[in-house]
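Case study 2.
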Amino acid sequence: MKTILLLGAGKSATALIDYLIDTARENKWKLIIADANKEQILAKTNNSPFAEAVSLDITNEQERSALIERAHLVISMMPPSLHFLVAKDCVEYRKHLLTASYLDNKIKSLEQEIKQKKLLFLCEMGLDPGIDHMSAMKIIEEIKAAGGKLRSFKSHCGGLVAPESDDNPWHYKISWNPRNVVLAGKAGAEYKLDDKVIHKGYEELFAECEEVNVDGLGKLAFYPNRDSLSYLPVYHLEDAGTFVRTTLRYADYCKGWKAIVNANLANETDVLKTKELSFKTWSSPIIPFVNDENRSLLEFLGLFDDAPVPSNAKHSADVLQYLLETKLMMQPADKDMIVMLHEIEYETADGKKKKIESSLVVKGEDSLRTAMAKTVGLPLGIAAKLILNEDLRMTGVHIPIQKEIYEPVLKELENFGVVFKETEK
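Prediction:
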């Protein structure tokens, strides 16, 4: 009996768990789900006979390796810093590994062993990164196959609140790991614009967010996301004059977050003395950056309240995370929304200039079965099924840019309402 091991049952795992249970039932496979919180697993599996729930401390080598040894394929939904622990065990016990996280140098260092053992480690198999790669490469390869030359590539993606659940001045609610929201943008950004390489630091990212129009939603703001340049050779677009990957938000979000960044309130290195510290005192460095545009945003978060900050906060980032979770958390009936937009400019074989816009809008059902969980989790589940059915026989370390990956995954995603709308200008 083929066995899938899912490590992690957090916010982004809900749709994946549903999919894997259905897949296990149909194929007579076994599913093991391990998480530090066993009750969280049971709540999401509804005590399904096709899913075994296991309480696991992922750092416990003996427990972790014993579970991995039982599996044919492992899906890690752990924080990125913990993937390498899992990866080493997967190599040792000859198990395929899937993650939704960015491929890092630690995983790459195992590539030779992975190839030798004929394993597949498929990373960046979620939403962003993941669906963005697959949907973009489909268009890029179609243009190239017709003799076209790409001149500009812009890819935007964001996890937002659906308009019907948008009831706060930030126009944002948290549908994924709140710590990632706190730390977003800290790495700065590198990208290519009009044949020039642009470097932006953390403090610059939210200063002047540009806007893009998304059909049916109007204008959304965006800021460049991490290192776009490293994907130029991956996408085979070294000749493109513009290449940038961005994160989508509403304009008001950027105005508020700009002040937070300027005041260094997302700091996670300096130790905070919380005794008799109020939110108002803690946030005092932001006062010089408060203006008519952001005042209501910052007040809504509770930055200027006289109440004491959480006593267990170690750093400023912990206090900020507490406020975000308190003020911007989704309520049970709330719906989130995923928005993705590719803007691709190219020249046809006969020299005509064209532009393709490919957009995706997915709404969640409620605060548990979110659009974020669907779009992060389903690609992983579909890929797992392809591998175990031997419909995907690749080996080595990969991200989903090859046709043999993206074609079947995108096709099945359409059955779940993950459908792109393309317009050509």
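The longest strand covers residues 149-161.
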